[in-house]
Design goal:
This protein is of the alpha+beta class and 106 residues long. 23% of the residues lie in helices and 29% in strands. It folds into two domains: 1-56, no CATH class; 58-101, no CATH class. A hairpin with a 6-residue loop joins strand 1 and strand 2. InterPro entries: RVT_2 (IPR013103).
């Protein structure tokens, strides 16, 4: 790829530059970029814009997953998808039950 990223052998949708710590996941016409350095992302996006039509925004949804950033933590969940399935099978009014899981699951 002209932007300096190498395609992963294990996942053909994943591109990375391990020296710059930047990762790009592409699915059809959607993508998401992850990096610890904001300046690296800005430089990469400039290169990407020279080759493709790019829409830049905060990642709230990606491939049906909801993404929430709270401070230094990022949470990925599928609450919207779960609600859609419950509604489809007319179970949205059923009582929910909590599933106990340890707070720090690593």
């Amino acid at each position: 790829m002209k932007c300096g990223l190498k395609q992963s052998n294990s996942d053909l949708c994943l591109f990375s530059d391990d020296e710059k710590f930047i990762y790009l996941i592409v699915h059809v016409d959607d993508g998401i970029i992850a990096s610890v350095d904001e300046q690296t992302v800005k430089q990469f996006l400039e290169k990407l814009k020279s080759e493709f039509s790019v829409v830049i925004g905060v990642a709230n949804y990606f491939l049906g997953m909801q993404i929430k950033c709270l401070g230094d933590e990022t949470f990925v969940h599928q609450e919207g998808y779960c609600r859609k399935i419950l509604k489809r099978f007319e179970m949205s009014e059923y009582n929910s039950v909590s599933t106990p899981v340890g707070y720090y699951y690593h």
